[in-house]
Amino acid sequence: MFTMASCNGYQKTIGQLDHDNALVYEDGNLVSGSLEALTRHLVPTSQYCPDRTYQFAFLLGSRLFIRPHQLFSQVCQICICQQDLTSERTSKESLGKFGRHFMQLLGNWTDIFSYDFRDERLVQQLKDITQKVIAINPELRKDVGILMHNLFSKLSGLQKYEDLLTRINAEAAQRLLNILPTTDIYEVCPSPLVFAQQLTHIELERLGMIGPEEFLDAFSKEPTTETSYKDLKKTNNLESYVQWFNRLSYFVATEVCMHLKKKNRIRMIEYFIDVAKECINIGNFNSLMAIIAGLNMSPIQRLKRTWAKVNKDKFEILEHQMNPSGNFLSYRSSLKAALWRSDGANEDRERIVIPFFSLFVKDMYFVNEGCSNRQQNGHINFEKFWQLAKQVTEFMTWKQVECPFDRHPTILNYVLTNPVFSENSLSLASFECEEPVANYERQRFKRLK
Known about the structure:
Son of Sevenless (SoS) protein, Chain S, domain 2, 3-stranded antiparallel beta sheet, Son of sevenless (SoS) protein, Chain S, domain 1, 3 strands, mainly alpha, 2 domains
């Protein structure tokens, strides 16, 4: 709890730091500043409200330097002291537009970075500061109520999603204990287009649950032994999405290798090639890459007699999309075309852009590693914040698209829970499909048997 003495001490400290904490601009753009100055720049007054782009960039990038609950505490401290919120003399008139401005900041924070408020410390701080504002300006009670309702609805949705993933994973684990079913995805869903649409449902659902802060949490330093469990990095949704990519790749390989008859393997490979083509047309590059990765696994690629009967022309065109040369130049060109289409789209199906996620994370990583956190004078390099915010803003746009296709629960359940082979099981199944030829294959087959 804050007393006037603590506020006076805080204001004195801020005043002493004014010179060192000055914000630095170049050509009208904020490029650096101390953490204290940048934090004060976030705090609204009756005459000033930080613009949304600054709020987003700072709330995103600041977690490289300070925990969200610590930043929120500092913001509240500044507000209490600057606006004299603990004084009985403070009135609605003396606050002016501060209350509205402050609610805008809280609204953006709880809406965009809502996962921060899974920390009960932040929730308590939020309740405390909003009650102080309401006590002086009761007209804001409704706004606070809406803010709290929206926040807890988002957190409830996240919990339901995580519970669903737990149930899906449990069902998949249970089915691993059973004999592999005789059916395959072609029998469950003969249409490559419909299957590509179902994959898009999964992609958009999982993409949509990733919080923007998870990218920065993934880059932050590992917590020390003194760090509370509450401060551990929270990247569950990002990691679940990466695991989905790996599952889809192994799912594709499993669906091919589970067939001992060559004609069935040919059918499956050609089916997945057609699915991948439909994924391109939709703008679902993540599923496209996962399918290509699955077909390029060594247990699939070694099936020479099978591939000899496959029409490879379409596959080579698709494989060109995954060519890493020129830093994935071909893929990036296709992504730009999809973005151009999305910008001018009138329907949701034309707005879909699902990037190759591993490459997107890699690009974010290089921005983080390629730009220093601080300048030589100790100031935070805010240009880095702008760059990170630019990339995450694109991600925020992609994940907000509603999937326009009909859902087929049977297909979704099959792809999410049907057993997939492990790496060793895939190799063994591949050798049973086509016997080992080279000496190293025969040696591996002996070890696996």
